[in-house]
Amino acid sequence: MGASGDRITGMGIPGRTAAVVLAGLTMAGLAVLGTTKGGWDTADPIASVLGAIAGIAGFGFSWYIWRRTGPETDPHAIAGRLAARIARDEEEALRQLLGGRLGALIDVGFTVRASGSVTAPPSPVGDEGSASGTAAPGWSVARIAEFYRRMEPGRLVITGSPGSAGGSDAEQDAGTGKTVAAVLLARDLARGHAAHPQVPVPVRLSAPGWPGGTIDAWLVQHLTSALGLRPREADVLVADRLVLPVIDGVDEMDRTPRLRADSRAAKLVAAVNDYESAPVIMTCRRDRYKALTRARSQARTAAVITLRRVRPAEAHSYLVNRVAYDDHHRVRWQRVLAVLDDTHAGSGPGTAELRRALDSPWRLTLAATVFQEPDASGRDLLRDPADMLGLAANGTLDGYLLDNFISAAVRAPRRSTDRDQPPMKAARLDPEETWRRLAVLAAHVSGDAPAGGRPSRAATDRVPPGTDIVLDQLWPLGGERRVLRVGRLLIIAAPVLVSAPVLFLSQVSTLSKVTILWPIALLAAVAAGGQRRPASHARLDVHYLRSRTGLRRMAALLAGSAVVGLVVGILFGLTVGFTPGIAYGLTVALGAGLTHSVVSNAEADATDPRGVIRADLTTWLWYGIAITVLDVLGLGIALDQGLAAGFMAGLGLGLVFSPAIGHGGAVALQYIAFLWCVRGRLPWRLGRFLHHCRQLGILRTAGGAWQFRHRELQHHLAARPLPPTGR
Predict the structure, then answer these.
(1) pTM score, two decimals?
(2) CA distance 552 to 721
(3) Residues 6+ apart with CB under 8 A from 333
């Protein structure tokens, strides 16, 4: 059985064909029944009711066939397909982190210290690891997967080592490559899953996005919402310990400078400790993990590996491969390369300082990017790498690199980090405008944005602290009250503006126009008045019906809808006759219940940061179209009010009810309101802008969020809303 697209699970071709054929026959049956006795405008209401019943029966049988052909029952087969998906995704993530060049990996070594009953493997050069903790100089990041497979048990914490250049505790191990090591480990473990099935499939999770609760529940939620597994399949994978949580960024969970036993990071580590003796991997900055240890909240029974700093010879090799790849560029970089050469015995100004400054992968990436920025003509480069010696000598190199990184990244030759994408077009972002926009976002996610008023406590609780740029969670940046007011106006305006033009151009009587339009406006106003909290997510989730829970929910909804439909039909029957009234009520109510059953309030696919908005908008349109079709059957046929009346009433009511009851539209409308409130500070096509920044290596993606390439860059931008001058 093959997978379908990017989803992990699939169904057989016979089952899919049967479902499609049955759905087609159902629609054909509706068409035949609807056109009996003279066409759609004069169809018998009894025929309409029979058509609705036939449609529901055919739809239900289609789903029965669908359920019988899936889901996959062999957990190891599911794990194998999941591993293939993870290997592809993590290779793309690694490509992003390395600036589009997988060959740019700096193979730093690491030491290992074990706590509890953990056995570390001996190093390749024969230095034995032990349970008490021993240096393993022979291990390096390129072989971290081999190291992990030989651990027992597979519980690992990845930290960095402090630099020799000083700095605050929070910055001592910044940029040492913890996330790169975690992504590389996940990719290699997933690649080798077929050869090493005893090692679970790695699934990377963003620690700031931890929803609370157990690791099991978090994994199930991520597997279903982000990776497309069905609930039963996710449950069995987690229960059988066939997935390995790789939790990245434990140090980014709390804004407070000190971590205590009641911090979110400590609570997450406690959940990891409660995860029995199952394999788990975490990344955390050295100072934050030491704080957790002092608070007695460290991971029990785990090996802690410490990535060492980049040695001068390794930095030399990186720059040769990245920027000094031919004679012309080697001459430009000659003075820097000479400083990093192990045979270099010079002690000129800036020599020692430069060697210390370039001892982390992040600093090397900055230097290689900034000093390769082309000039305005594009025929020459803007800066001389030899200037780094003077900047390092007077202690300004770090600030200089960060000041010029955005400009250099934007003006660099277009090279997309996406494997299957061609080079980007010559039309580029403006460096200064890009700086200003990113500075707004950096200040907001860092908790420093004025945001037209201080972010509310609800917003602060909702937004993962300090790192994630999530489109539907940026609304406090526009001012909470202002975004709420504009969002309410949109909820009122959208259905009225859609319904009114076509309705007034139709041949429906004036009384019918007013009768249809004023309830839509009234309901829109009522729905807008109920928008007091951040909007809930909505997405189509037809796979939910393939579970017992989903089928029970659908049965309950249809039963409740039948009761509501009868009540509505009787009320309508008092004025139009009981037969057409009940036909209308049952048609609309049962159809709405069926529509309701395929809408989920879970977050959309977390692999695309733009997925939440797209899924919400799609669900809104789906609900509006579904209610429109049902109202065409009801008003246009059963009540003989004409197709135009049924069409516009259904579309208007669908657009109103959907955001009001959490079936799509609320998130999209709130997002549009937010963009209106921040116009001038952020672009209208914000998602597209952030996607381009990711392609340029300024941002990276982590699940359903964008993050700055490095937290140091985020803080630098947050403190400087305007780009530097005189660079």
Answers:
(1) 0.73
(2) 53
(3) 319, 323, 324, 385
